[in-house]
Amino acid sequence: MKNIRFILTTLFLAAFTVSCDTDGGESELDLRVGAVSDITQNPELPTILNLIDLQEGQDITFGFTVDVAQGNVTSADVVGLYQTASGEIYGPVTLQAGITQFPTELTLSTSDVVNAFSELNSLDDFQLADNLIITTKLYLQDGTEIELWDENGRLYGSDILSSTIYNVDAFYPVGCPLNGSFAGDYQVTITGAGPFGAFAESGVYNLQETSQTQRTIALSYLPGAGGFGQSAVLEFVCGTVSVPVIASGIGCGTGSISYGSTDDGVEIDPADDSSFTLTITDFITDGGCGGAAYPVTLEFEKI
Fold first, then answer.
1. Is the per-residue pLDDT at 1 higher than 50?
2. pTM for this model (two decimals)
3. Quick one: pLDDT band at residue 13, thresholds 50, 70, 90?
4. Mean pLDDT throughout 116-123?
5. What are residue 78's DSSP bridge partners?
């Protein structure tokens, strides 16, 4: 039986093997038509493995649909790889074998994941920023087997992974999804001033949900200098919130003034979004304006 690992690099999903039959430079192309799968996460089930729930011993069920985007596929295996926060990769392991109906909806649990990977012993082994990767091994009608990972467990073929037509994998990171909290209107009291006066004016601001762990706030930065529209990101990571350093695009001819968190963030209660306080630093870089860094405090009270 043929067992082929290859990078699908053409729009026609073909793998080419060249064999030279003569010394005169003539060649024959052994053209084999490949295949590609399409994996869609079930949005009604978790797409982030909640670390807090796992630490409390709660099993998490997640789901996805396996389909064939192109190719003559007779069956498929659902394959899992597990990447730790430090970059170590476990697997690949087979999570479900012998799928012959497409599309097929599947559900798995974190207990299934523990049972499949010898490196995981319990739900306690899930750690923040780990990542479960779901992909497939395809079996074609001509006996060819297609795997989309290399010997180190790395998925490869950038044109496939970046496709807007199909998804050959599904990622389930370990984190702390906000599940809709820390969003909406807040009364924000802002204190802290530097060379151009206040960082921003106090008032009612809307925290917009941009992902399961991020919120954005639109503010008028440095109103004493005329005010400049900014969109700051609040990054929530399992009990802490921080603002990744932002280059404002404003300066005095040399670089840009920047602001954001200069530490690991401040602690919050993930179960209580009624109020929280965030401390950041403005003028981390001064953009050639000559000002010193200064602290800014934002106190959020939900309306």
1. no
2. 0.76
3. very low
4. 97
5. 96, 136
Residue 149 near residue 7 (C-beta atoms within 8 A): no
What are the beta bridge partners of residue 114?
A: none
SS3 of residue 52 by DSSP: helix
pLDDT at 110 over 70: yes
Set out the domains of the chain in order of their start, with CATH numbers. 3-175 (no CATH), 184-302 (2.40.128)
pLDDT digits 0-9 by tens, 201-215? 999 999 999 998 999
**CA end-to-end span of the chain:** 65
Name the amino acid, one letter, at 130.
Answer: D
Give the span between the Cα atoms of 265 and 184, in whole angstroms.
21
State whether the Cα torsion 270-272-274-279 is positive or negative. Answer: negative
Q: How many CA atoms lie within 13 A of 284 on its CB side?
A: 15
Sheet holding 36-41, edge to edge: 36-41, 61-70, 104-109
Provide the strand spans (E) within 34-88.
36-41, 49-50, 61-70, 73-83
**How far is it, in rounded angstroms, from Cα 212 to Cα 208?**
11
Residue 141 φ/ψ, nearest 5 degrees: -60, -30
DSSP 101: S
> Are 13 and 140 in contact, with CB atoms under 8 Å apart?
no
Helix (H) or strand (E) run with residue 114 in it: helix 110-116
Q: Which residues contact 10 (CB under 8 A, 6 or more apart)?
A: none
pLDDT for residue 35: 87
